[in-house]
């Protein structure tokens, strides 16, 4: 058995792991980066980048279809599925190539290939003949798509998003199960690229939205374009010739089943943190109900131990910018362990690249309700917003939340045009702890979609002048059965 001694061991060379590696190395420590799979990161290989490449092709097709609405007639739309997928894969490979170049430039003695598992809080086993003894460890093992075993039994055409980016051509039909962020982004993109798509949503939820009014607006706008079936359950998936037979049941249809054939069923029902095979029972850590070590979100330290966690493995906010921030904090604190410092956690910002786009900023509607805070709401519909109408993108709703008394901006949920940019403006205002009046003092050009934001802020400012509603009744714990 060979033993490598180091200051910090990082498990996983994704965005979070690479960020942790750099932070610990910048602190002058000997860091070992352990990776089990191919290098390149989830983001570049099967995540952010290839999905946005597919969406970019879909937007091009959509623009051609929409052109006649402006009096522009580009002729018959011809989508070359092979060329679409070729560009997705070759540009994806380019992004992966940059990561590979960075990894190749690291000193060879810093890199270990293999699957790590804890044998003690400060000791990792990699394969049969190697162990790493470290003063501190960062868990940055990412997450994986999950396909329920009953569905997977129908064969290899029941796929996760990973498989989409290996296609060499576009299929004729895909059923997408789950209207979360991945289902919506990939489902709409495939639909726009001429694939027959049905999106099955178990409930009413749309991407990360929690505000019922914004959610309803998103459901309407997206449902006008594509076949989204809300409150629909999957009853069964079976092989049927070269494809699949999908049986679904709508909530209001009793036991009646709808039976349809598809080339693929794409399962986008969520991702699971990669922590189950880590031997956490030897780590001495307290785990939450998902089996993820409990940690402090400001230091990324697990309890008082020498173990830190970062990225999707933490199951906190599975987004790339969060993985990078968490990795940086975890790496720096692992390097200085037992001394740890609170790192910068930014205002929450999440964007879904559907059209209309979806953005959530700061405290969401449900979080504010749960917190029993006194908050006022301002809103704007984009249906008649000037610039949005000019672009024929006049759909959606923005709701902004503000605090009575302080007038502080608390958060927002939005579906509408340019939400990725409005989301950033709002996130910056939130992190700067601005009030609604301070935000209204900022410049707004004309004619821009941001004028819609100003309307929502003015509406919120007026609401904040009114007396706050009476406090919500506190549930009476003395009620029998409580
Ligand atoms: C389709 C899709 C689209 C997305 N789009 C966006 C987007 O537009 N914007 C955004 O912000 N986020 C997006 N995300 C989310 C984003 O990709 C992730 O949040 C981010 O990549 C997570 O990084 P990570 O470092 O935690 O994990 P990863 O990059 O997955 O790295 C984890 C690494 O750990 C390795 N590993 C696991 N277990 C072990 C072990 N025991 N031993 C050794 N190595 C191990 C794995 O092989 C892997 O390389 C998307 C995700 C998907 C799937
Ligand atoms: N643009 C982005 O930033 C981006 C893009 C893609 C992914 N991501 C990240 O990846 C994470 C994972 O994405 P995801 O879409 O897999 O998960 P998700 O949690 O966003 O959505 C899963 C959806 O599947 C539904 N669902 C669960 N079980 C179901 C069932 N049996 N039948 C029908 N529906 C079911 C859930 O209700 C939910 O709406 C996201 O939370 C996000 O953080 C981000």
Automatic annotation (TrEMBL):
Cofactor details (free text): Binds 1 FAD per subunit.
Cystine pairs: 43-48
Assigned EC number: 1.8.1.4
Necessary cofactors: FAD
Catalytic-site annotation from UniProt: 446
Flavoprotein in keyword set: yes
Pfam family, one: Pyr_redox_2
Binding-site residues for FAD, renumbered to this chain: 52, 141-143, 312
Record-annotated FAD/NAD(P)-binding domain positions: 7-327
Gene3D superfamilies in UniProt: 3.30.390.30, FAD/NAD(P)-binding domain
Binding sites annotated in the UniProt record for NAD(+): 178-185, 270
UniProt region (Disordered), positions on chain: 462-482
Origin: domain of life: Bacteria
Gene Ontology terms, MF aspect: dihydrolipoyl dehydrogenase (NADH) activity; flavin adenine dinucleotide binding; NAD(P)H dehydrogenase (quinone) activity
Domain Pyridine nucleotide-disulphide oxidoreductase dimerisation: 351-456
InterPro entries linked: FAD/NAD-bd_sf, FAD/NAD-binding_dom, FAD/NAD-linked_Rdtase_dimer_sf, Pyr_nuc-diS_OxRdtase, Pyr_nucl-diS_OxRdtase_dimer
Key words of the record: FAD, Flavoprotein, NAD, Nucleotide-binding, Oxidoreductase
PANTHER family for the chain: MERCURIC REDUCTASE, PYRIDINE NUCLEOTIDE-DISULFIDE OXIDOREDUCTASE RCLA-RELATED
Family note: Belongs to the class-I pyridine nucleotide-disulfide oxidoreductase family.
Protein name according to UniProt: Dihydrolipoyl dehydrogenase
Species for this entry: Massilia eburnea
């Amino acid at each position: 058995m060979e033993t490598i001694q180091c200051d910090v061991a990082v498990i996983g060379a994704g965005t979070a792991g690479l960020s942790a590696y750099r932070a610990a190395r910048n602190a002058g420590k000997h860091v070992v980066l352990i990776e089990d799979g191919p290098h390149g990161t989830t983001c570049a290989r099967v995540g952010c980048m290839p999905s946005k490449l597919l969406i970019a092709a879909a937007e091009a097709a959509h623009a051609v279809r929409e052109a006649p609405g402006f009096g522009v007639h580009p002729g018959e739309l011809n989508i070359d599925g092979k060329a679409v997928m070729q560009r997705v894969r070759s540009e994806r490979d380019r992004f992966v190539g940059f990561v590979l170049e960075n990894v190749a430039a690291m000193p060879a003695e810093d890199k270990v290939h293999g699957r790590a598992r804890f044998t003690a809080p400060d000791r990792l086993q990699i394969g049969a003949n190697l162990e790493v003894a470290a003063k501190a460890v960062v868990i940055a093992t990412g997450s994986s798509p999950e396909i329920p075993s009953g569905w997977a039994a129908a064969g290899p055409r029941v796929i996760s998003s990973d498989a989409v980016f290996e296609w060499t051509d576009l299929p004729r039909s895909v059923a997408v199960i789950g209207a979360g962020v991945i289902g919506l982004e990939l489902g709409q993109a495939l639909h726009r690229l001429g694939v027959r798509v049905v999106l099955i949503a178990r409930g009413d939820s749309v991407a990360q939205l929690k505000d019922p009014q914004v959610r309803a607006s998103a459901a309407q706008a997206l449902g006008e374009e594509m076949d989204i079936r809300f409150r629909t359950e999957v009853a069964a998936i079976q092989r049927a010739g070269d494809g699949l037979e999908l049986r679904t049941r709508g909530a209001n249809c009793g036991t009646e089943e709808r039976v349809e054939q598809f080339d693929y069923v794409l399962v986008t029902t969520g991702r699971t943190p990669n922590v189950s095979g880590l031997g956490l029972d030897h780590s001495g850590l307290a785990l939450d109900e998902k089996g993820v070590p409990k940690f402090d979100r400001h230091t990324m330290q697990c309890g008082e131990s020498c173990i830190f966690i970062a990225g999707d493995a933490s199951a906190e906010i599975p987004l790339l910018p969060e993985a990078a921030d968490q990795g940086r904090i975890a790496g720096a604190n692992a390097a200085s362990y037992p001394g740890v410092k609170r790192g910068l956690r930014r205002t929450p910002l999440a964007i879904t690249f559907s059209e209309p786009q979806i953005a959530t900023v700061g405290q969401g509607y449900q979080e504010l309700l749960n917190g029993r805070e006194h908050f006022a709401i301002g809103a704007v519909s984009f249906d008649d917003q000037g610039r949005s109408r000019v672009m024929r993108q006049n759909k959606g709703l923005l709701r902004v939340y503000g605090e009575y008394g302080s007038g502080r901006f608390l958060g927002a949920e939005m579906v509408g045009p340019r939400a990725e940019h409005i989301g950033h403006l709002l996130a910056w205002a939130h992190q700067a702890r601005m009030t609604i009046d301070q935000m209204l003092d900022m410049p707004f050009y004309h004619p821009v979609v941001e004028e819609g934001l100003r309307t929502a802020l003015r509406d919120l400012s007026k609401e904040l002048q009114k007396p706050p509603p009476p406090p919500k009744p506190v549930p009476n714990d003395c009620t029998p059965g409580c």
